[in-house]
Amino acid sequence: PEAAAMKMLRAGLALLAWPIYLLSFLGIWEPFCRKVFFPFFLEKLSRVHDKKSKKHKQELFRNLPDFRGPSGELRLLEIGTGSGSNFQFYPPGCKVTCTDINPNFQESLSRNMKKNQHLRYEQFLVAAGEDLRQVPSGSVDAVVCTLVLCSVHSVSSTLREVLRVLRPGGAFYFLEHVAAEHSSWTYFWQQVCFPTWKLIFAGCCLTRELWKNLEEAKFSELKIEHISVAMPWMPIEPHIVGYGVK
């Protein structure tokens, strides 16, 4: 009965979103989503999410200065920078390289760069998390990734690239929404929403158990905490937060 209910609810959701399915079939939705809808939506979502996760982020990034390189500088690479909502949490003088697969965040990104002039912005690379070939191996002290691993094509390839670009002793910081407990209502709704959500929100997967990928990656030390970030009307409440050391 649960599987049948899920199929019915999925079909109902697809029916509500039929114009988007049609646009997707015609090849119109994806470019529109990448250029217009997703940057617009993500900026709005970031504002809500930042308020709800601010304490977690302050706590997460508090020890960033501990990972400064031998020169005393902190070279930080952010994967999926988006509108730059994490800049406010980085320590003064930090050298930041921004990467994103989607170059359409310029407006909100420029605003956040102006607001956060305590940082030194090195470069902006249009690159996927799985392919950071423009970044030399062992060249950064810290890599940051928030709300990004849900939509990369391959989590394991992205984590391999993270470990490649980090210097030995460098750290990878993450805050990501993940699959809920399998027996919970949240997980049931995550599964109901999954196909339509993934289509509308540029490939975002609701049911990834990212802590497993992190545990399988070759970090010498890994701190993971399961937390809850209440997002109204959204099936993305369960999160993980923490960092891994190369």
Automatic annotation (TrEMBL):
Gene3D superfamilies xrefs = Vaccinia Virus protein VP39 (3.40.50.150)
Q: Where is the Methyltransferase type domain?
A: 77-174
Q: Which residues form a coiled coil?
A: none
Which keywords does this Swiss-Prot/TrEMBL entry list? Membrane, Transmembrane, Transmembrane helix
The keyword Cytoplasm appears for this protein: no
Among InterPro entries, the record links this protein to: Methyltransf_11, SAM-dependent_MTases_sf, Thiol_S-MT
Where would you find the membrane-spanning parts of this chain?
Answer: 12-29
Please provide an example of a Pfam family that matches this protein in its UniProt record. Methyltransf_11
GO terms (molecular function) for this protein are:
S-adenosylmethionine-dependent methyltransferase activity
Q: What is the protein name for this chain?
A: MET7A protein
Gene from which the chain derives:
Mettl7a
